[in-house]
Design brief:
heterodimer, A: 250 residues, alpha/beta, Rossmann fold, 6-stranded mixed β-sheet, 4-stranded antiparallel β-sheet, 10 helices, 12 strands, globular, B: 483 residues, 11-stranded mixed β-sheet, 10-stranded mixed β-sheet, 23 strands, binds adenosine-5'-diphosphate, binds magnesium ion
Chain lengths: 250, 483
């Protein structure tokens, strides 16, 4: 089944055109990787997909499970099963990790027509998933992303993802700021969530994350659109030769 | 009420966001509009008061007539015509009620809508409730259980008759009639309120609570609360308030006096949700309240916790006079303003006793076109050796059309005292909202989550049964504040 269909997407911020006819289809069970140099518009793509207000979509469509979501707000998109793991997660002073997780879980349960979960049940579920991702109880008592290390931030993003259980997840540079061990933890955390019903879009700069989350397809993105697509081998070429050859070829 | 008006009200109700905006149609007993000696005499005789009380009121009226309405607060409101207000309004047939069964069922229904567990069997949480409807205390629950411990919890109108010595001794002892314009007015015309007395060594076995409700049109509410905690006693008291939605402004000018004797502790919590007016600033309650506690004895403690979400205009500074050695004053406040609301609120901590200590935690949240001012005074008198104060004053802005202001007055007449003041201002950012929205929270849920996080230090001071309600209230009051 087609989960995400991005069709000829053009988007700008202010006068700056950032996405220039970006197209991509993701079916259930597939993992796609997007690689591209800094500034090519990868994060912008992730924001436009999630429904951040600042962007102007001037052309194109985004279909999520065959529903056009262009007009939907970020929370509506989330409730349809879209998740974004941020490249730079946002701090929420005053809101503890535990409170945040409880709130988003129950809000998503209500949206799915499920009853809200009460304290103990909820805490149990959260703890279980947190342990898998090497997240301590103490960390959940701290304010969301405030004073978190790079690795803690990324692990907290993946924790949210595993609790919300989205049908399609966009991971924006989830590997940046991770050391080798953290990379392995996050990699296996994400891999555990993969299944035949879900799709993933992994945005990365480096090949190394793709050793842990093995993609079915790799796309090279430059200046707001895909220049070339292929299998996992493409990532290896990038690793060796950089992006120059793709840019020159186009 | 004429049929047309009633229809308009119903429609408004149905479309309104203020969930307490209904009014109740009851037969009422009203004095004519306006304020003069005759009205005061009428109030006094309606209450069957002794002569000394009437004289006390008339003296207050004399004082009030010579005073000017204060204008130093950072609030703007149309001039109040004190002759255009009803000073006495009571639901009929509420006098001499012995049990809940005798209360007008419509009134009970109103309280049910307000979420007040009046029926004793429902009061499993163990909260004793005094309910004041317009000018009259309607019912007080759990009185017998309290009486066993020697705790007095009754309408102040009854206390004036039954415990004249206590009332004479304490009324006006913390807030004298001449203290300010509104305290003088209240002293002249107060109609009801609660009286609490906790005897020596008694820990009050349950939370005491009063709900105030303004129902009638053009009616002022002037309640008077007096709480006295004798040596080594403890009491926790909760106060809640709501009013129906009305186009005109209504005046609420209460006086609350607390007295804590040696080693006694009074914890006073308020969730204030008077009608704030509509999105365009029409209607709403003018809340001009004087609240002050006296830590008379050594080692005494008074703690004010308030969550202020309602009222069109708020003018309120719950304060502590720290007479006793080692006495402690605390002020925890959340004040939320949205739309065109204006709040000028804060506290005064007056240190007289050695080693006295005070803590002020104030959280102001402004949204819409509202103005939110923290005004706080800390005064260390020469005798307050080694006294300490810590003030933390945080403002959170939602949107860019509102204002937050901090006005501290700090005076130390004593080199050994120590005063610390911290203040921050922050804003809910677009990025924070987007982050929450991308997790499926609506804008309102996101704001409520962030705001509740911001207020947590204060909310945790509220008694359990109040804090859940207060959290919801914060969400409701900020509806429509973003986007
Ligand atoms: N808020 C903004 N205003 C103007 N330009 C922006 C803004 N955000 C990003 N850009 C520009 O858009 C381009 C793409 O940025 P981004 O999507 O972050 O790229 P990537 O994630 O691939 O590194 C860059 O040239 C960047 O400078
Ligand atoms: Mg990026």
């Amino acid at each position: 089944m087609n989960l995400l269909n991005i069709d000829n997407l053009h988007a700008s911020i202010g006068d700056e055109k950032i996405l220039n006819g970006f197209s991509l289809k993701i079916n259930s069970g597939e993992t796609h990787a997007i690689m591209g140099p800094n500034g090519s518009g990868k994060s912008t793509l992730s924001y436009v997909l999630s429904g951040k207000d600042d962007y102007n979509v001037t052309q194109g469509n985004i279909l999520l499970k065959n529903e056009n979501i262009i007009e939907l707000s970020a929370d509506e998109r989330s409730k349809l099963g879209l998740f974004l793991a941020f490249q730079y997660p946002i701090e929420l002073p005053g809101v503890t990790g535990m409170t945040f997780l409880r709130t988003i879980i129950n809000s998503s349960r209500v949206a799915k027509g499920l009853p809200e979960l009460e304290g103990i049940e909820l805490v149990k579920i959260i703890r279980e998933k947190a342990t898998e991702l090497n997240i301590s109880q103490d960390m959940l008592k701290r304010f969301v992303n405030v004073g978190f290390s790079g690795g803690e931030k990324k692990r907290f993003e993946i924790l949210q993802m595993s609790l919300l259980d989205p049908s399609i997840a966009v991971l924006d540079e989830t590997d940046s700021g991770l050391d080798v061990d953290a990379l392995r933890t996050v990699g296996s955390g994400v891999t555990n969530l993969k299944n035949k019903d879900k799709g993933m879009l992994v945005i990365t700069h480096y090949q190394r994350l793709l050793d842990h989350i093995v993609p079915d397809f790799v796309h090279i993105m430059v200046k707001g659109k895909i220049l070339e697509s292929g299998g996992p081998d493409l990532a290896k070429i990038v690793e060796k030769e950089g992006y120059k050859r793709f840019i020159d070829a186009n | 009420m004429p049929i047309q008006e009633e229809t308009i009200e119903k429609v408004k109700l149905a479309t309104s966001k203020y969930k307490y905006g209904f009014s109740t149609n009851l037969d009422v007993d009203k004095a004519p509009k306006g304020l003069n000696e005759d009205i005061i005499k009428l109030i006094s005789s309606k209450k069957d008061e002794p002569q000394w009380m009437l004289e006390w009121r008339l003296k207050a009226f004399e004082i009030w007539k010579k005073m000017e309405e204060p204008d130093w607060a950072k609030v703007n409101y149309p001039k109040i015509d004190y002759q255009d207000i009803y000073y006495y309004s009571a639901p009929k047939n509420t006098e001499k009620l012995k049990s809940l069964d005798e209360v007008d069922p419509q009134l009970l229904e109103t309280y049910e809508k307000l979420g007040i567990p009046l029926k004793e069997q429902k009061v499993l949480a163990g909260v004793a409730v005094d309910a004041v409807f317009d000018s009259v205390s309607v019912v007080t629950t759990f009185r017998e259980q309290l009486a066993e411990k020697g705790v007095i919890f009754c309408p102040i109108s009854e206390a004036i008759k039954n415990y004249p010595d206590l009332i004479k001794k304490y009324i006006g002892s913390v807030i004298p009639r001449h203290d300010n314009y509104f305290s003088a007015l209240n002293s002249a015309v107060f109609t009801d309120g609660s009286f609490v007395f906790i005897p020596k060594g008694v820990r009050c076995p349950m939370e005491l609570s009063t709900y105030f409700r303004i129902n009638e049109k053009n009616t002022g509410q002037f309640e008077r609360t007096l709480i006295v905690a004798d040596d080594d006693s403890y009491v926790s008291y909760l106060e809640g308030c709501t009013a129906p939605q009305r186009d005109e402004n209504q005046l609420h000018a209460a006086v609350v006096e607390l007295v804590a004797h040696k080693n006694a502790e009074i914890k006073y919590s308020t969730v204030q949700n008077w009608y704030p007016g509509d999105e365009n600033g029409k209607g709403g309650i003018f809340n001009f309240v004087t609240k002050r506690g006296s830590c008379l004895g050594d080692d005494s403690k008074i703690s004010w916790t308030q969550v202020e979400t309602g009222s069109a205009v708020t003018w309120k500074y719950p304060s502590c006079i720290l007479h006793g050695k080692n006495s402690v004053g605390e002020f925890y406040s959340v004040a939320i303003t949205n739309n065109y609301q204006q709040a000028d609120t804060g506290t005064k901590m007056i240190h007289l006793g050695e080693n006295s200590k005070s803590t002020i935690i104030s959280k102001g949240i402004s949204a819409g076109k509202s103005q939110n001012t923290y005004r706080g005074k800390v005064l260390m008198q020469p005798g307050a050796k080694n006294a300490r104060n810590y003030t933390q004053c945080d403002s959170l802005l939602i949107g860019d059309q509102c204002g937050a202001h901090t006005v501290p007055y700090i005076t130390s007449k004593n080199p050994t005292s120590n005063i610390e003041h911290e203040a921050t201002t922050s804003k809910i950012s677009e990025d924070q909202l987007f982050y929450c929205l991308s997790r499926g929270l609506s804008e309102e849920e996101a704001v409520s989550l962030i705001v509740n996080g911001f207020c947590k230090e204060v909310m945790k001071e509220l008694p359990m049964e109040f804090s859940v309600e207060a959290q919801k209230l914060i969400g409701i009051s900020l509806e429509g504040s973003v986007g």
